[in-house]
Specification:
This protein is of the alpha+beta class. The chain has one domain: Alpha-ketoglutarate-dependent dioxygenase AlkB-like (Jelly Rolls). The protein has 4 helices and 16 strands. Strands 1, 2, 3, 5, 6, 7, 10 and 12 form an 8-stranded mixed β-sheet that branches. A 5-stranded mixed β-sheet has the order 4-13-14-15-16, with no helix packed on it. A 3-stranded antiparallel β-sheet has the order 9-8-11. The protein is globular.
């Protein structure tokens, strides 16, 4: 189900892992970036979500490659494979996340999702929490996102549950949180003549306003159902 372990980092993991990444602001309290491990022919593994990114994907930094190796070792999973990292920084005031299932449109079947957490203050006493809700029973439980911790779950577990990240006690001082969500994409794109194309040659285009609404409706259905299957979608909300 959900497995938690702690990685052996020093006190500077926040600065170490966020260095060299160009973040964009999604709100006053949330920043994000997408980093990817290109495949041998230079194709980009994309994971389309309801968040719209204006900056293109960035290559995995050496620190991110090292993070993956540490997760493989700590979880005793040497074959664990990921190629897409959503890197986010939350200010203490960010509290807007709702329950959701990680969007599986582009996720490789039978793969794993890993969420790594660390704080600007390595002595953070009031860490954020991952609240998990089972879709069938609505039963909830919490997983503390402590310094240098990693939570791992499968795509099957992802489909069966909703989750959200919440802040610690509102009356307590918190430092900035760095969260890195690592996943394995099955969808690759290349740029040709200035336009993005899937590996089968189809054009990946930016969604129209109506398609954006449609995309949000698909996501809502995924959140409500365990065995939801997306239709073929040839658009995206982001630059890749």
């Amino acid at each position: 189900m959900f497995t938690t372990f702690t990685l052996d980092y020093g006190s500077d993991s926040f600065a170490h892992l966020s260095s060299g990444i160009a973040f964009e602001n999604h709100s006053e309290t949330r920043q994000g970036a997408i980093c990817v491990a290109f495949n041998p022919n230079g194709a980009i593994p994309i994971i389309r979500t309801t968040t719209s990114y204006t900056q293109p994907s960035q290559p995995f930094t050496p620190a991110l490659h090292d993070l993956v190796s540490r997760i493989q070792t700590a979880s005793n999973s040497p074959t664990l494979t990921v190629n897409n990292a959503m890197v986010e920084i939350y200010q203490p005031g960010y509290t807007k996340m709702g329950f959701h299932t990680d969007q599986a449109l582009d996720l490789e079947a039978d793969s794993f999702i890993c969420l790594f957490s660390c704080y600007e203050d390595p002595e953070e006493k009031h860490p954020r929490k991952l609240v998990v809700k089972e879709k069938l029973t609505n039963k909830e439980f919490e997983i503390p996102l402590t310094q240098n911790s990693c939570v791992r779950w499968s795509t099957l577990t992802n489909a069966q549950h909703l989750h959200k990240i919440i802040s610690g006690p509102k009356d307590k001082t918190q430092s900035r949180w760095l969260g890195i969500t690592l996943r394995l994409s099955k969808t690759f794109v290349n740029i040709r003549a200035g336009e993005w194309h899937f590996q089968d040659g189809r054009h990946l285009r930016v969604a129209t306003d109506e398609e954006r609404k449609e995309f949000m409706q698909y996501k809502s259905l995924e959140n409500k159902n365990i065995e939801y299957a997306y239709p073929e979608i040839s658009y995206t909300l982001s630059r890749h």
